[in-house]
Amino acid sequence: MYDLSNNDPLKEKLTILSDAAKYDVACTSSGVSRGGREGFLGNSVAAGVCHAFTSDGRCISLLKILMTNHCIFDCKYCKNRASNDVPRATFTPEEICTLTIEFYKRNYIEGLFLSSGVIKSPDYTMERICETLRLLRTKYRFNGYIHVKAIPGASDELIYSAGLLADRISLNMELPTQESLRKLAPNKNMKNIIGPMNRISGTIAGHRVAVGKSARMERCGINKHLVNSIFGPGVDRIEGPEGDSSLFPAANPFLYPAEKNDALLRRPFAPAGQSTQMIIGATDETDLDLIRTTQALYQSFDLKRVFFSAYIPVNEDAALPDKTAPVPLLREHRLYQADWLIRYYGFVADEILTGDNPFLDYRVDPKCFWAINHLDRFPVEINTAPVDVLLRVPGIGPTSVKRIVSARRYGSINFEMLKRMHVVLKRARFFITCNGRMFERVPMDHRYILNQLADADRRDVYQITDRNNDFRQLNLFDDLKMERA
Q1: What is the DSSP letter of 23?
Q2: pLDDT band at 336 (very low <50, low <70, confident <90, very high)
Q3: In whole angstroms, what is the distance from residue 71 CA to residue 83 CA?
Q4: For 9-353+469-482, CATH number?
Q5: What is the DSSP string of 375-409?
Q6: Residue of 136, 129, 69, 128 whose CA lies nearest to 109
Q7: Taking the complete model, does pTM exceed 0.85, yes or no?
Q8: Burial label, 411 (beta-carbon count in 10 A; 0-12, 13-18, 19+)
């Protein structure tokens, strides 16, 4: 077995390239239920694969690395930009395979997250990534979870091959508008990002339909006006009426007959779906701009997730925030909560925020923020309110709604029963009644309720804002050091 604890060039590369990967966000569950297979190594189950950020590393984790941190692009926000003087390294495909298999055998990881800087050209980089994945799946018979980042500007054939070999494929938008890209990433443009996203989405849908599944993963209606306003005219994207099941025409996906006949690639295309990432805080977009873009991405490309990455000041540049600026971790947290409302609670971006009020109140979560600004709709009677109304009550989630609807078939519900159903009464108590009575007598006043809810969340907010600014990737050798101490 290869001794990864030695001070050899491979370990030095791992130190550089695992740390360089920390700016790629992807704390995802696998989204696939592929069990073990005879003759193959590893499995990937729906229970999920995620990153571990705890020092002991006991959470199931991915080996999260870059293939290279060399890059021909000079994105102003990136630590690995071409003009930065930083230690550089490049893995060969065989080295990545060796690391993945050896770490898997040691039970350090359950899968691989592979991204890369752009070396020589997007096609050259993507070809090396595909070579790595092909070796893992064929020579090393690796059956575990793989999340790969596609390179903007790479050819359709290479992205298609990567999608056949990986479980999840993602292509980072990085910034939410073309203007932001022009300002901070002059080598990138929105069309080179949105076009491949569209074709990846169509190919995933085609593979899902071929095995009898629904074409769409997420359940979002298509708002073409919103999509056009975000991405602008002339950008290749999915078109179709709301609710149309034929949103993915045959001309849209990647279709290459020669690849289909390859026995080694008879696998579903990206069965865990597609995701993307946006940096927040590097440019001056409002929360409403970010939420609208997020909603448009879900609606147009059926993404599994949109990830937000709080901008970490690593470079000095006139176009960037000051290097001493705090990392907007709380803003990132609130945007994730808003994203959850869009995906699972039936909210749309223009309900959560408006043009007159384009920023979230970071003292409370977005659901509370919405409810406080719509006090005319509350309180609602827990024993009679429809499901869609209950879902909009702060402190009540989908699981609690199911329990409430089931329980009230057999009698009326009181506050004690709600506690046993795990309804969060410290939030819900301002917005509900049970049998016509509120939990306690409180004024239905905007300022009073806002202060009460902000006080209830004060501890959580402090834990986020007071987080240690040591943005270090989990070191897989930590426990080796502890054993020798």
Answers
A1: G
A2: very high
A3: 9
A4: 3.20.20.70
A5: GGG--EETTT--HHHHTTSTT--HHHHHHHHHHTT
A6: 136
A7: no
A8: exposed
